[in-house]
Amino acid sequence: MSENKNLLKLRRISKVFSKGTVDQVRALDKINLDINSGDYIAVIGSNGAGKTTLLNVIAGVYPPENGGKIFVNDRDVTGLSEYRRAHYVGRVYQDPHVGTAAKMTIEENMAMALLRGQPRGLRAASNKQRRDLFHGALVPLGLGLENRLAALVGTLSGGQRQALALVMATLSKPAILLLDEHIATLDPRTAQIVLDLTDMVVTREKMTALMVTHNMELALRHGNRLIMMHKGRIVVDMNQQRKADLTIHDLVVAFERASGEEFVDDNVLLRPGNVVGTSDL
After folding, report:
1. Over the stretch 252-278, which tens digit does the pLDDT of each residue have?
2. pLDDT tens digits for 112-121?
3. Stretch (H or E) spanning 189
4. Crossing angle of helices 106-114 and 158-170, rounded to 10°
5. 10: helix, coil or strand?
6. Residue 134: what are its φ and ψ, rounded to 5°?
7. How many Å apart are CA 229 and CA 119, to the nearest integer?
8. 163-211: per-residue pLDDT in tens?
9. What predicted TM-score, i.e. pTM, was given to this entire model?
10. Coil, helix or strand for 106?
11. Which DSSP string do the residues of 26-91 spell out, in sequence order?
């Protein structure tokens, strides 16, 4: 697959919540976006910018409105359910407890992930083949999880569960990986470890990925492309060359020029070391 090939195309994507009420919110506003194969995109924005809603629409949780279309490898997947869309999309959530089953073993969780999005009734390979696959996928994490396949996932720390969720999300080789603030609840040390693991897995598996974050410094440091959202719109979209030498101040200036508004969300300016969390590896 060519690096310049459009893997994911979004056309006129809009989403309105509580339509027709006093609480109506336009979460996405006619978004057009082309994502190339191999893109690793950091998506930045304050609360309410539309970041998670964008991931939910891509994953099939919400359908786009007013004729919006979603294409994966030029196939129109707009009408596919979330379950069917899972064939194309892997996802890691903010909460380490989401996306993994605490009362099932590591091996059982990975077996479910391997069959995600496949036709019902399809069986995984034999136990020996499967264990070899899981072992090989876990070894590069360096956490020893490959030797704990029979351990209940509920016995793992938050960081270990998030690292496992990352491997599970890529196990079936989806077209695109969605990372929804997947380090937000981790303590700074664990967050950095999981980020490093993310970079390694995305590179090793040659994934196309969108990583949502509140943190401008992380958005500048990770990925080959940066998108900034505001009020349901993409207001900044820059490649690696443009963002390579930028500071947080430069990014704030770019946002204010593009949006015509002052940037006022201090939480987005926090450095990774200021993230509050309770988990560790």
Report:
1. 888 888 888 877 666 665 544 444 343
2. 888 875 554 4
3. helix 188-204
4. 30
5. strand
6. -65, -40
7. 36
8. 999 999 998 889 999 999 999 888 888 888 889 999 998 998 889 999 9
9. 0.88
10. helix
11. EEEEEEEEEEETT-EEEEE--TTSSHHHHHHHHHTSS--STT-EEEETTEE-TT--HHHHTTTEEE
